[in-house]
Amino acid sequence: MTDNLHFSSQTDQWATPQAVFDWLDGHLGPYDLDAAADSTNHKCANYIGSDVDALTVPWSGSHVWLNPPYGRGLGRWATKAIEEIDAGNCDSITILVPARTDTNWFIDLADRAHRIIFVKRRLRFGDGSRDAPFPTAILVIDKNSLGSQIDFGVVVGDAL
Ligand SMILES: C[S@@+](CC[C@H](N)C(=O)[O-])C[C@H]1O[C@@H](n2cnc3c(N)ncnc32)[C@H](O)[C@@H]1O
Question: Are 37 and 69 in contact (CB under 8 A)?
Answer without folding.
Answer: no
